């Protein structure tokens, strides 16, 4: 019972940890090419939601489909990543001793060991894709630079690039602008809006200014449930949202 034009279908998802309900009857649909923001106070269930989508946590019940064919509840984390769901955690985890280019090269060849990957020749097509991604994340001038010498924001962009070279259909991003300068945050907004044409994005973010600058559609989680959903203006005007989240 997935919907046409929907990249992600979650219906009546329940997750319990030792009797504690982290997600309750959660239903959420993400459209192809959509840029969705997920907001909510600490403990709302945002991380658990991402864990369910990536196969790290199995729901106790509910439906979870990627596209129309991939039943996420029956797949391993590796299978889900290979099917086209890329996740970026909050802290960057680039290989600091390797160059920017090598980091992208490794990410593209995840089926090999680190050293086998670096020795293997890239095809022209792979090299072109890396060049394209380098331009997208504005690191084409730093391709030979050790990743450890990049700024915090640039490391975040590199890690997004490491997902992009794998051509994921759905990108999950956890607090992408935390710790970024204003200029980096602005570039991230631009980047996400441009990526949303080709990919679908789910962004967990606390920075409401940033959310306002990117999202067509916002889902507010609270105590493991969807509290409200709609445009940022609509959810910010929602009484329940003001009470639990915004009206501190
Ligand atoms: P958020 O990311 O919105 O801050 P989380 O998804 O991390 O929220 O957590 C939702 C709730 O589930 C929290 O109360 C948290 O303590 C609880 N929780 C998350 N993971 C586990 C776990 N592995 N075992 C027990 N409780 C957990």
UniProtKB/TrEMBL annotation:
Q: Which UniProt keywords apply?
A: ATP-binding, Nucleotide-binding, Transport
Q: Which CDD domains match?
A: ABC_Mj1267_LivG_branched
Domain ABC transporter positions: 8-248
- The protein's superkingdom reads Bacteria
Name of one Pfam family that matches: BCA_ABC_TP_C
Gene3D superfamilies from the UniProt entry: P-loop containing nucleotide triphosphate hydrolases
Q: Name one GO cellular component term.
A: plasma membrane
Mind listing the GO molecular function terms for this protein? ATP binding; ATP hydrolysis activity
Name the chain's protein: Urea transport system ATP-binding protein
* Taxonomy of the source species: Bacteria, Pseudomonadati, Pseudomonadota, Gammaproteobacteria, Pseudomonadales
């Amino acid at each position: 019972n997935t919907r046409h034009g929907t990249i992600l279908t979650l219906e009546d998802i329940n997750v319990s940890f030792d009797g504690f309900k982290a997600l309750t009857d959660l239903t959420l649909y993400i459209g192809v090419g959509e840029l969705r923001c997920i907001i909510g106070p600490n403990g709302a269930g945002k991380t658990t939601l991402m864990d369910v989508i990536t196969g790290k946590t199995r729901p106790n019940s509910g439906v979870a489909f990627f596209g129309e064919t991939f039943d996420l509840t029956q797949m391993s984390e590796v299978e889900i990543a290979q099917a086209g769901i890329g996740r970026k955690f909050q802290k960057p985890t680039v290989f600091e001793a390797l160059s920017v280019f090598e980091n992208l090269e490794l990410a593209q060849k995840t089926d090999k060991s680190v050293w086998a990957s670096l020795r293997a020749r890239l095809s022209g097509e792979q090299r072109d894709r890396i060049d394209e991604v380098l331009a997208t994340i504005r690191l084409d001038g730093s391709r030979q630079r050790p990743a450890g010498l990049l700024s915090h924001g640039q490391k975040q962009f590199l890690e997004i690039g490491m997902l992009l070279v794998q051509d994921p259909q759905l990108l999950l991003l956890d607090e992408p602008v935390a710790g970024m300068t204003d200029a980096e945050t602005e570039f991230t907004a631009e980047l996400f809006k441009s990526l949303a044409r080709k990919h679908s994005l789910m962004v967990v973010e606390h920075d409401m200014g940033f959310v306002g600058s990117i999202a067509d559609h916002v889902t507010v989680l609270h105590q493991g449930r969807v509290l409200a959903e709609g445009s940022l203006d609509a959810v910010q005007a929602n009484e329940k949202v003001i009470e639990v989240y915004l009206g501190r």
